[in-house]
Amino acid sequence: MPNTRAEPREASPGRTHRWRSILRWFDTADAQGYEPDGDRVDWLRATPFIGMHLACLAVPWVGVSVVAILVAVALYAVRMFALTAFYHRYFSHRTFGASRAVQFLGALVGASCVQRGPLWWAAHHRNHHRHADTDQDPHSPRIRGFVHSHVGWFLSPRGFHTDWARIPDLARYPELRLLDRFDLLVPVGLAAAVYGLGALLERVVPQWGTNGPQMLVWGFFVSTVVLFHATVTINSLAHRYGSRRFDTRDDSRNNAWLALLTFGEGWHNNHHFFPGSARQGFRWWEIDLTWYGLRALAAIGVVHGLKPVPAWVAERARR
Ligand SMILES: [Zn+2]
Ligand SMILES: [Zn+2]
């Protein structure tokens, strides 16, 4: 006799999975039921990310203005600095000190980049250094190919998973855990603010030719999508193209173009050889905008204790 109840019972795990994927757009806390090692893209959970890309296609409808471009560039610059200085050099590598308020501010601006919370980011990145270009590396072009190292990893169940064992020093801050859990909140807040700015400028200075929708598309969507792809070139391109000054165990490269685009992160072979320094350009001509920014912040007392490039590393970089 056919079991009429078997059908719905079998269908329910799929439905539960789909429902959870949608739920985690808003709240990432319930990570149970996800396979941490699944490497295929979770398309449903990736929908907001894909939507962000599609929103950029609205450019022909909203038009363009000088002020919208300036806001997009400014938001790229401020947020790239937050990613490299705070998400990467502070949270992931602890290469300088900051008060709890400054730490939170860095995390807040970092969270507006739509690259998830600081704990998630640091946990993945610490695993990247630990296992660089082995099969346990979250995003190695050597292991799972170029597209996966650039974007596929970011949208897979394994990519969504946070490895809490890697970040006990950060997980003790409730305010950081909050940013991590509700990682959509800050981006939505920024998008609303950018829209509001456009609407305000339309009323106050209509001759500037902008409005809410135009500012939203350029200032938030285009800026954020370019920011994302620039950031992840360090996982993909900077493990393929460039020079290798240090014979590290991984495939990391130094690439001046990527260093300009990412405010210093392109000196990636330097960084893999010695990740403990707040500076990634080891020679004076290796432009590292984040390092200059951190020096300026240290000079006015916002951050402190920038870890320099040790003399023995600087000496080897000169050879
Ligand atoms: Zn790397
Ligand atoms: Zn790193």
TrEMBL record:
<feature type="transmembrane region" description="Helical">
    <location>
        <begin position="50"/>
        <end position="78"/>
    </location>
</feature>
<keyword id="KW-1133">Transmembrane helix</keyword>
<dbReference type="GO" id="GO:0016717">
    <property type="term" value="F:oxidoreductase activity, acting on paired donors, with oxidation of a pair of donors resulting in the reduction of molecular oxygen to two molecules of water"/>
</dbReference>
<protein>
    <submittedName>
        <fullName>Acyl-CoA desaturase</fullName>
    </submittedName>
</protein>
<keyword id="KW-0560">Oxidoreductase</keyword>
<dbReference type="Pfam" id="PF00487">
    <property type="entry name" value="FA_desaturase"/>
</dbReference>
<dbReference type="InterPro" id="IPR005804">
    <property type="entry name" value="FA_desaturase_dom"/>
</dbReference>
<keyword id="KW-0276">Fatty acid metabolism</keyword>
<dbReference type="GO" id="GO:0006633">
    <property type="term" value="P:fatty acid biosynthetic process"/>
</dbReference>
<feature type="transmembrane region" description="Helical">
    <location>
        <begin position="182"/>
        <end position="201"/>
    </location>
</feature>
<keyword id="KW-0408">Iron</keyword>
<dbReference type="GO" id="GO:0016020">
    <property type="term" value="C:membrane"/>
</dbReference>
<feature type="domain" description="Fatty acid desaturase">
    <location>
        <begin position="68"/>
        <end position="298"/>
    </location>
</feature>
<dbReference type="InterPro" id="IPR015876">
    <property type="entry name" value="Acyl-CoA_DS"/>
</dbReference>
<keyword id="KW-0443">Lipid metabolism</keyword>
<keyword id="KW-0275">Fatty acid biosynthesis</keyword>
<keyword id="KW-0472">Membrane</keyword>
<comment type="similarity">
    <text>Belongs to the fatty acid desaturase type 2 family.</text>
</comment>
<feature type="transmembrane region" description="Helical">
    <location>
        <begin position="216"/>
        <end position="238"/>
    </location>
</feature>
<keyword id="KW-0444">Lipid biosynthesis</keyword>
<keyword id="KW-0812">Transmembrane</keyword>
